[in-house]
Amino acid sequence: MVKPAAPEAPRLSLAVITFNEEKHLPRLLEAARNADEVVVVDSGSTDATVAIARSHGARVIESDWPGFGRQKQRALEEARGEWVLSLDVDELPDAQLTESLAAVARGEGDEFDGYAMDRLTAYQGEYIRHAWSPDWVLRLVRRGRGRWTDRPVHEALVVDGSVGRLKERFTAALKSRRSLHAPRGLLPAGARRPTARGVASLESAPAAAAQPMPPPLISHSKRSLWTVCAACSWRGPRPWGPS
Question: Which residue in 25, 153, 144, 164 sits closest to 104, CA to CA?
Answer without folding.
Answer: 164
